[in-house]
Each structure stands twice: as structure tokens, then as C-alpha cells.
Amino acid sequence: MTPPSQGQLWTTVRKARLIQVLAVYVGASFVVLQAIDVLTEQLGLPDWVFPGAVVLLLIGLPIIMATALVQGIQAAAPERAGAESASEGAPTSTDAAPASLSGGELHAVAKHWLTWKKAILGGVLAFALLGGTVTAYTAMRVLGIGPVGSLVAAGALEKGERTVLADFRSQTGDSLLAAAVTEAFRIDVAQSQLITIVQPNQINGILRRMERDPNEPFDLELAREVAIREGYKAVIGGEINAAGAGYVLSAQLIASESGDELAAFRATARDSTAVIGAIDKLSKKMRERVGESLKTIRANEPLETVTTSSLEALHLFSRALRTLGVEGDVET
To answer: With a threshold of 0.85, does the pTM exceed it?
Structure first.
């Protein structure tokens, strides 16, 4: 078998219609992704569904192009066979025979697997698997099964559970940052339909009844004491760590009685300007784990639109709240 000439190669490519196939595939992929994006918003699908669909479509692209090429080669085979018969009797090298045989075997395997029927069936099965994974994930979440199960469905928390928020601890030495992050987190979680954060003025009254100083740091240990006294099932604690020029924010949802960790979350901020966005992500992760609808969570306004995008302004805001709500000083 002689190597194909340039004209024969062009005939193969023309038969394969690679450009047309690519255009159709890209167009169909766009429609599929648009549909998935709409369904994600309307049905409250997990955030990983859209990236998962993108990965499947990218995997399918070389398969579709290879199928088109193999089918083009098959369609061009009669023309090439005629060209080779015209040159029959030309001397050939016996050294090339094993390579030709290997190429023939490879082509036979490709013709067997790379057919339009199998390519389309493979795509359907891939997206069926994605749909099955989403269904299983949703079922586990609704039923409270496994690490993705909601805490409300699992019975660890009740709907509308009153929860005590401890002050975030700052390992950066910036106490103002910790106060600002705590207040921003409180504001964002307050949008939840499943968690009711006990407000600072209520905490202040409880501390006075406990004969504790409302001005002392409201750390996780003290928050648990308050929760146990008042019969609240859960407390939230958090921590801020430096990571180069940025920060790592973490939060834990803890059972007040036992001190067991019910769930833990983490978000990163590349610098101080991204702290508000990191708090927003941290809050949403917690609300999702508790069991709130993803559709409801996404419908809420971003944190920076209901507070401020300025960390400095949030510093001042949290300081004013503490002065008015905890210290009771209305003239400062």
C-alpha cells in the first residue's frame, strides 16, 4: 500500500467534512451549556454540574473529530483504491510491509469503534451518567445521607435553629479585621431561612444574666456556655489566618452540648479587597450544608451589595455596632 498523495489526503479531509462537523459540535455544545445553565438556576442544581458538562463536551470533541476523520477515510477509500490500482506493478519495499500491516490493523480497529452510532451513544451515556450523579447527590442531600446530606434532613439541626455566633479569631493580630469579618458573616447568614443567628443585644442580655462582662471577648468557649444555658443546639466559630498577602477564612458549625464539629468550611481571599467575597462564599457553603435550597441561596444579594465592599468601612461599622449594642454608649 503506497502512502496517500497530497490530493488523496485532501479528498479524505473533504469527505470527513471536519470544518462542518466542528461547527455543528460547537453549536450543539453551546445550546447544551445554555440549557444546563438555565436548569442550574431554575432547579438549584449543584455548582459543579456546569463545569462537569464542559469537561464531558471537551472529552467528546476529539472523539467526534476522530470519528469524522475515520468515516472520511472510509468514504474516500474507493477513490484511493482506484489510484493504487493504476500504479499496480510498481516496485515496493518489503521492509514497509510490517508497517502497512500495522496501519491496516489500526485502521480496522478505528473503523470498528469510531462510528457515528457509537459516538452519539457514548455522548448520551456520558450525560446520562452526569444526570444520574446529580440525582444521587440531590437524593443524598435531601435525605441527609453521607457527607453531602443536609444537617436539617439528618436531624442534627431543626429548621430555623437559633444559633450563637462566636467572634472570629484573628491569627493575624488584627482585632478590627476579626470584628469586621464576624459582623459581615452575621449579616450574610441572616439571609438564611434555616439558621437564626442570635443577635448581639440578645447575647448581651444573656451575659448580664450570667453575671459576665459583655465587653470580654466572645470566644467559642463562652459562646458554647451561652448556647447551653439557653438551650441552643449549635454555635458557629471562625478563624482568620494570613496566607502571604491574602487570608484564609475558616468556620465551624459545632454542637453546643458535645462540642462535636458538625461541619467545617474554608474560603480564601487573595488580599484585603477580596475578604468580603470570601465571607460570602463561606456563608453560602454553610447555608448549603445546613440544607438551604441552592436556588434560594443564589437568589440572595451578594454580601457586598447588602453591606459594603470596603473592608475599612466594615471595620468602622462593626466598631459602631459594638459600641451601641454591647457597651450601650450612645454618645461615643
So the answer is: no
